[in-house]
Amino acid sequence: MSSFRAILVVGRLELLPTIWSNCLAGWWLGGAGHPAQLPLLFLGATLLYFGGVFLNDAFDADFDRQHHPSRPVPTGSISEETFWRIGVGLLVSGTLLLLVAGFASGALGLALVCVIVLYNAVHRVFPVAPVLQGTCRFLLYVLGASIAERGVSGWSIWCGLAVGAYVTGLGYFSGCLADTAKRRDWSLLLLVVPVGLALVMDVGRYRESGLLLSAVLILWIVRCLRQTFWSLEPSVKKTVAGLAAGIVFVDWLATCPANFVHQSNRAAQEISVAFLALFGLAILLQKLQRHP
Asked: Pick from 215, 228, 213: which is nearest to 173 by CA?
């Protein structure tokens, strides 16, 4: 395996746009503002994400030697020691950057690091590890809100919990890739939690846009599930990849009420374009991952 290919495999670049969209949604729900802090937010979250994925291979080194000999550590493309050094270095650097943005963001960044490390340490043996994945996404929401004008509020907390539920459901269902004998179809119910929250919270002038964006998310979920349940050649892998990109649609739906709060049609259009661009980037990176 070449070093470039190894970096693509380890980095899981296709998920990075969803990390950015989580941060963007949290910031928007927190009232936006303080644009000078956004680069620190995005760069800090990016470093934490990459730190987590490098630590994942470090913790899984022995498992990969037995079950996934094509991974970078078994092939010798990148040493196990290098994974540890890079992973820890990225987590420390990301936390320090978030601390520069503010004490609250630094504290939340440290909490996120703790969950990242815990997930990587126990995900092979702990049956509720996907809940930790969802917790990471929740923390990204409140992290984004922490640097915004109004800070962490009910909107960012509830919407963060909703995206956490979606990612938790996706995490359980993606387990089918490792063990096809244990289908976890029940976990798909968690994918519609954001829609349920929107139906409850998007009232009055929020209702029309909330219903429209809910329809977009539902149609995308159905399209992805078709690859597993209604295809002549079922592919859980394609379903999981599509649902992962759909995290951006969850974030777009979450920002619907805040679009009206900002009282700016232009701002609402710009944030929508940003989410669509991030979704497109996620799909593009998935294709590059398959054909580097």
From this structure: 228
Q: pLDDT (tens digit, 9 = 90+) per residue, 31-75?
A: 888 899 999 999 999 999 999 999 998 898 888 788 777 777 777
All residues at 6 or more sequence positions from 22 whose CB lies less than 8 Å from its CB, including other chains: 45, 137, 140, 141, 144, 163, 247, 251
Q: Are 16 and 43 in contact (CB under 8 A)?
A: no
Alpha-carbon gap, residue 46 to 234, rounded angstroms: 33
Which DSSP category does 192 fall into? Answer: G
> Which residue type, as a one-letter code, is found at position 24?
L
Residue 292 near residue 4 (C-beta atoms within 8 A): yes
Among residues 238, 249, 240, which one has the least CA distance to residue 279?
249
Are 175 and 233 spatial neighbours (Cβ–Cβ below 8 Å)? no
Burial of 259 (0-12, 13-18, 19+ CB in 10 A): buried
141 residue type, one letter: Y
Question: What is the rounded CA–CA span in Å between residue 119 and residue 238?
Answer: 24
